[in-house]
Amino acid sequence: MSSPGETQSLLRLMTWLSPAFPVGGFAYSSGLERAVHDRLVTDAEGLRGWLSATLEAGTLWNDAVLLATAARAADDGRQLAELSELGLALAGSAERHLETLSLGRAFLSAAAAWPHAVFERLPRDCPYPVAVGAVASAHGVSTEQALAAFLHAALSQGISAGIRLGVCGQQKGVKILADLEARVSAVAELAAASTLDDLGTSTIQADIASMRHETQHSRLFRS
């Protein structure tokens, strides 16, 4: 049986990574809109492959490593500041930089409803995964749980974007999320034991799509 403290931490994590939490994640597609425009992603199977690659070898993997590192450094303001600078420097395009910075700022502003000294240690310009990792750890959430919830929320947002872009319907979107469940668990476990030496991506097409999105004339999303 879970203790009252564990249940409370879980409820907070669910709130912070809920689609209703006011961070504005619905406005971003992390380059997916351009991939659809360029017909790199045309159907549900393509969306599943795109999200899977992002999870295991793309920006989501780097975000997971940053989150885990921030969780371990939650009591050290200097480390959090250095990690935030690194996280922002890793953004592969201007819009990805805007995305992680805007979400990070919005998350810290909204999560301040649960007061904690960790907010004083975090810099104002804080990338989203660093903010989530530090705040979750400070409130007693295990790193692996925070990672699983963070990755699940990111994939859910990607699927939502895919649905709005006409790539698939809701039923196939749910099937994608179910198919990726085991991979989310595996990546969360790996990332929980990761270090900054594990940072790195190999999703060149996704990086190019993110950069090309900046000059796209007609679009639904900010990245």
Keywords for this entry:
about 220 residues; mainly alpha; Urease accessory protein UreF; 12 helices; globular
Morphology: globular
Q: What is the element string, with H for helices and E for strands?
A: HHHHHHHHHHHH
Number of helices: 12
Structural domains: how many: 1
Roughly how many Å is the radius of gyration?
A: 17 Å
Which structural category fits the helices and strands? mainly alpha
The biggest sheet amounts to: none
Do you know the CATH architecture? Orthogonal Bundle
N-to-C span = 42 Å
Sequence stretches where pLDDT stays below 50 over 5 or more residues: none
Helical content stands at 55-70%
CATH class: Mainly Alpha
Give the overall average pLDDT: 95
Explain how this protein is built:
This protein has 12 helices and no strands. It is an all-alpha fold and 223 residues long. The chain has one domain: Urease accessory protein UreF (Orthogonal Bundle), CATH 1.10.4190. The N and C termini lie far apart (42 Å).
Provide a compact summary of the structure.
The protein is mainly alpha-helical.
What's the layout of helices and strands?
Layout (H helix, E strand, L loop, with lengths): L3 H13 L15 H6 L6 H14 L1 H14 L4 H13 L4 H18 L6 H4 L6 H11 L4 H22 L5 H10 L1 H12 L11 H10 L10
Helix pairs in contact: 3-4, 3-9, 3-10, 4-5, 4-8, 4-9, 4-11, 6-8, 8-9, 9-10, 9-11
